[in-house]
Amino acid sequence: MKKTIFNQIVKVYIIMSFVMLITIGLYTVQYIEGEWEVILINIFRIVAITFIATLLIFMGFIHKIVEPIKHLTKIATRVNVENMDIPIIRTEHDEIGELAEQFRAMSLNLKLSFEEISTQKEILNSISNSIHQAIWMVDENTRIKMANINFEALIGTIEYKDKFLLQLMRNHEIIKLFNDTISEKTHINREIEYQKKIYLCTSTYLKNNGYVVFTLLDISDLKSVEKFKKDLVSNVSHELKTPLTTIKGFIETLMEDANLEQIHYLEIVNRNTDRLIAIINDLLSLSKLEQTTEVIKNEINMRHFFNKIEKIFVEEWKKQHIELVFDIDNFKFYADEFMLEQVFVNLIDNSIKYAEKGKIKVSANLSKDKIIFIVADQGIGIPKKHLNRIFERFYVVDKSRSKRLGGTGLGLAIVKHIVNLHNGEISVESEENKGTKFEIGFPRSLRSSVN
């Protein structure tokens, strides 16, 4: 049966009780015989012997308890991350023995846990260092807590631990990105310029500790290629516009003296020339918008603005028997009027081309922090698989219809650029054979008081 400290204490008390009973017995016998002096001497001897015996037993018992505890204390002071595998001497199967075994098990578990953490840390470091991006993490005070070798190469030092971000990267765009991320507690992507290169900087807020993780991807080559493509399109468009205008002029001149058969072919040439000119004009507009970083905003009376828009489409929507409805309050709006006109002309023109019937409604809703414009039709709708791509340049949902109606595939790309330049957002909802709804949201700060 397993021995316990409690059992050993009971043994000591039994021995002491036994000795005391003997003492009392002797005392009683001597009392009866009346030998008082002998009684006192015997009591003193017995008490002294009992005390000394009990003390020796107690000291031995204390030594038996204290020595294993001292040993465990000594081992505990030697345990650390580098030294977890320490042998522990065996003790008896009592509470101290159990404590020693538990300490041994704890030491082994800690060793295994640290080995696993160390392995995971090495894997994480290998992954972060293999990614061709600078990665680093900062706390809420912008002190750098960890980073990969690409970050070290970017800042030119390996001594970054607990230093402020602004000390190592003197770039206020990154600091602004950090402040926005902390404020919004979200994930943000932005293009920034650093050391004469263009980077895509991503910041992610970590909810568990309030830290922010940054990644920096060099996109300078991509931006150079993108700029080259834009410049090429712009230059080619400019070069094509003049000869196409000349061709159109000569076609119209030839049509004056042509016979019926010749007119038929000249009209085909003229129609396709018009289509080419429309594409060129849209490309030039898009190229100009992509190079624009700031727009000049003027106060626009929205009711007067949409009255002008309505006049542009009067003949067309009447010819197609489509009802065009404007539900606009009389408020003022700050924007580039020509750009804003392009937005609604393109959206309404698309709706007329693809509606074929029913009603097209243009409305404005004033929410707490936004001004929302809606252009909704009851046309053929857009299949769901195309919704994510309709704002791409040259993307056409129905190519045969677009070719027949003269679409360029650039109208919605132009719309999106103009909305972005005004810090707005555009979205689309559509269902086949039920219609399409475009929703544009602008910041409320662009709106002035209602007249």
Architecture overview:
The chain has 451 residues and is an alpha+beta fold. The chain has four domains: 5-108, no CATH class; 131-218, Beta-Lactamase; 223-291, Helix Hairpins; 298-450, Heat Shock Protein 90 (2-Layer Sandwich). The protein contains twelve helices and 13 strands. It has helices spanning 5-33, 36-78, 95-130, 149-155, 165-168, 172-184, 220-257, 260-291, 302-319, 337-355, 399-405, 411-421, and strands spanning 134-138, 144-147, 187-194, 197-205, 212-218, 298-301, 323-327, 331-335, 359-366, 370-376, 425-431, 435-443, 447-450. The strands form three sheets. The protein has a five-stranded antiparallel β-sheet with strand order 2-1-5-4-3, sandwiched between helices. A hairpin with a 3-residue loop joins strand 9 (359-366) and strand 10. Helix 7 (220-257) packs antiparallel against helix 8. The longest helix has 43 residues, at 36-78. The radius of gyration is 44 Å and the shape is elongated. The N and C termini lie far apart (98 Å).
